[in-house]
Amino acid sequence: MDNKKFHWTFWMGVGFLIAGGISWAILLAGEGPPSFVEETATYSYGWVIFGAGLTIYSMIRKIPRSK
Questions:
Q1: Number of domain units in the chain
Q2: Degrees (nearest 5) of the Cα angle 13, 15, 31?
Q3: pLDDT tens, residue by residue, 2-25
């Protein structure tokens, strides 16, 4: 990769990864009915998956294309 700045999608992806991780950690530290925990865990996983997708997309965009 060259030394250009990362695209905004990279930083948004990192933000979603952090938010998903924090959400998941708070969820695991708390207590509640199983249905609530399962439903809320899905949101945490969704944030992490979306963040990983944005980060990977941003990194793929930085790969120079051969002409």
A1: 1
A2: 115
A3: 556 677 888 999 999 999 998 888
